[in-house]
UniProtKB/TrEMBL annotation:
The protein's name in its UniProt record: ABC transporter ATP-binding protein
SMART domains in UniProt: AAA (SM00382)
PANTHER family hit by this protein: ABC TRANSPORTER, ATP-BINDING PROTEIN
Record keyword Transmembrane helix present: no
Source organism (scientific name): Ktedonospora formicarum
ABC transporter domain sequence ranges: 3-231
Lineage, broadest ranks: Bacteria, Bacillati, Chloroflexota, Ktedonobacteria, Ktedonobacterales
Length: 296
């Protein structure tokens, strides 16, 4: 299974939501990260054949999805950002309904619904009405419907928005269990969602690819550029204004900052191992500063 994207662009009116994106992707999880408006949803909707590109091509196993969209849709699972459920249904009824919509014969549909309910671990509440579900459980039903056809390509758009931290961790574990032998594209602006799960990160910013990299390489690039310093309130505020700070924590003996800087930002600063989030901030930071300057 291979997804190939060549020079893909999408324009809405005068605005380019995505510019000249090229990508070749095999089994594993691709973490699509970037701030709001970066073009993540636009890209995913084009891959899912829900949106027509302005320019460029998307190939699934070498076939253009403009002309062979049906072949892709057969092996596609998609969880959109605004996944809605029907309130009058239980989880099981809802999935059976969607299985029927997808054309699964009844006996196969019933069996497959039981399988996916088990995979996403909601069997225990499967016969409760959907409005009684927590946000995390609803997202599990969302993933369950995307898994009904055992997809080779699973696209999940910002699935952790609105979930509490414990639900987020559970959801992340669930996705990690699904990575073998399929392509998963997961979009998020929360880096920890893809940390330890994605084998590749595609960082988008303003419709363009800022980096296409294994997480380890992004981390390696940030090594030697993250610092920790504990200082008084005044100096901390000065440092925060001059450097990009990833965290700022009040301690008994002052304020501890973690700063991202190519050079030692303060004589008392010590070098620390970067987190993936800090590596991401470093990759996107320069553009954020220049964007802020343009805003002035
Ligand atoms: N239907 C539309 N009409 C006009 N502009 C749009 C439309 N959909 C998206 N855009 C614009 O295209 C750009 C990319 O949007 P997109 O939703 O793909 O980004 P995103 O990275 O998914 O952001 P978010 O995390 O907020 O969903 C944004 O500037 C957005 O305002």
């Amino acid at each position: 299974m291979e997804l190939t994207i060549e020079n893909l662009s999408k324009r809405y009116g005068q605005n380019w939501a995505l510019r000249q994106l090229s990508l070749r992707c095999g089994p594993g999880m691709l973490g699509l990260v970037g701030p709001n408006g970066a073009g993540k949803t636009t890209l995913m909707r084009m891959i899912a054949t829900l949106l027509t590109p302005t320019e460029g091509t998307i190939l699934w196993n070498g076939q253009d999805i403009r002309t062979h969209g049906a072949a892709l849709r057969q092996v596609l699972g998609y969880l959109p950002q605004d996944f809605g459920v029907y309130p009058e249904f239980t989880g099981r009824q809802f999935l059976r309904y969607l299985a029927a919509m997808k054309g699964l014969p009844r006996s196969l549909a019933y069996r497959r619904v039981d399988e996916v309910l088990e995979m996403v671990q909601v069997e225990q509440v499967a016969d409760r009405k959907l409005p009684t579900y927590s946000g995390g459980m609803k997202q599990r039903i969302g993933i369950a419907q995307a898994l009904l056809n055992d997809p080779e390509l699973l696209i999940v758009d910002e699935p952790t928005v609105g979930l509490d931290p414990a639900e987020r961790v559970r959801f992340r574990t669930l996705l990690a269990s699904l990575t073998s032998n399929r392509i998963i594209i997961l979009s998020t602006h929360i880096i920890s969602d893809v940390e330890a799960v994605a084998n590749r990160l595609l960082i988008l910013q303003e419709g363009q690819v800022l980096a296409d990299t294994p997480p380890q390489a992004l981390l390696a690039h940030a090594t030697g550029k993250v610092w920790s310093v504990t200082t008084n309130q005044t100096t901390a505020l000065q440092l925060q204004a001059s450097y990009q700070a990833s965290t700022m924590v009040n301690q008994m003996d002052g304020v501890t900052l973690r700063l991202i800087s190519a050079t030692r930002p303060h004589e008392a600063a010590i070098e620390v191992s970067p987190s993936l989030e800090e590596a991401y901030l470093l990759a996107t930071g320069r553009q954020e500063v220049s964007a802020r300057e343009e805003d002035k």
